[in-house]
Design brief:
With about 280 residues, the chain is of the alpha+beta class. It is about 20% helix and about 30% strand. The protein is globular. It binds zinc ion (2 copies).
């Protein structure tokens, strides 16, 4: 039985004879169903038209993304630690070349995913590398392919390896998580931020949204809470969800001033919008 994949969000569902008809992840306001309707594919069909590309972002951190782009178009990140490799976020395509390359790099000790839009084909990856998937329990309702490899965690932080910590920030999703890598950025600290802290095109600011495709903002308290959660962690580099969304330095200060700008906009009295 094929495990169908939603073409719009890239989420793989549990194996079934027929396609699942609707995608609950696209059917709610943080995603969308295109006007042409719900479309499905399979892992095999995807592999016929796409391959994965690799880019080293910094020492010990390799991006893995599908070309041509598929669904939301995010790339995963393979993070090397002294204890083994961690995969941050995930993509829908795991082809034979990617499996061979990741195995040659030492395989995976775990997979951690920022939020449900990037759950993608996580179970394929978990089975291929015999690795657990760490998901925040706050988003359990969005797991479309349940599997024993999925380990739910609760609370605000989860240490994954020495210097590697998952931080639950919430915001975009209740269980919205970022990864802090203490040794990243040559010891200045790196944040892997997914869609939870969104790197925007000018790289001088980040932003935060409940829904990106539908442009629905977060409340001021939700954005301030993200700042509070990140406060104890030093970082200078931020790697967002796409190959080109990277802030090479000044990340901590950029997050601080972005939160101030955002909160001022959503708490404003409207007078700034008339100027
Ligand atoms: Zn979908
Ligand atoms: Zn998202």
């Amino acid at each position: 039985m094929p495990a169908f994949i939603c073409v719009t969000c890239g989420t793989q569902f549990k194996p079934s004879d027929k396609d699942p008809a609707r995608c609950p992840i696209c059917d709610e306001p943080r995603q969308f169903v295109p006007p042409s309707g719900q479309v499905w594919t399979t892992h095999e069909a995807l592999a016929r038209r796409h391959i994965n590309a690799f880019q080293q972002h910094e020492r010990g951190l390799i991006g893995i993304g599908t070309v041509p782009a598929f669904a939301i178009g995010q790339r995963a990140l393979l993070l090397k630690t002294d204890e083994g490799n961690v995969l941050w976020d995930c993509i829908s395509l795991l082809d034979d070349a990617t499996t061979a390359i990741v195995k040659a790099l030492g395989g995976l000790i775990g997979i951690a995913i920022s939020h449900p839009h990037y759950y993608s084909s996580m179970v394929e990856w978990a089975h291929a590398f015999d690795a657990p998937i760490h998901l925040h329990a706050g988003d359990r309702q969005w797991i479309m392919r349940p599997d024993p490899s999925i380990k739910l965690w609760d609370g605000d932080t989860l240490p994954l390896a020495g210097g590697v910590t998952l931080i639950r920030c919430g915001g975009h999703f209740a269980g919205g998580t970022v990864l802090h890598w203490e040794q990243g950025g040559g010891g200045r600290g790196t944040l892997l931020s997914g869609d939870i802290v969104q790197v925007i095109p000018d790289r001088k600011f980040v932003t935060f949204m409940r829904s990106y495709p539908n442009m629905i903002p977060l409340s001021a308290p939700a954005v301030e809470r993200i700042g509070t959660m990140l406060e104890p962690y030093p970082f200078d580099v931020i790697h967002g969800a796409w190959f080109d969304r990277t802030i090479p330095r000044g990340g901590k200060e950029i997050v601080k001033r972005s939160i101030e700008r955002y909160v001022a906009a959503v708490r404003g009295d409207g007078s700034a919008d008339l100027q």
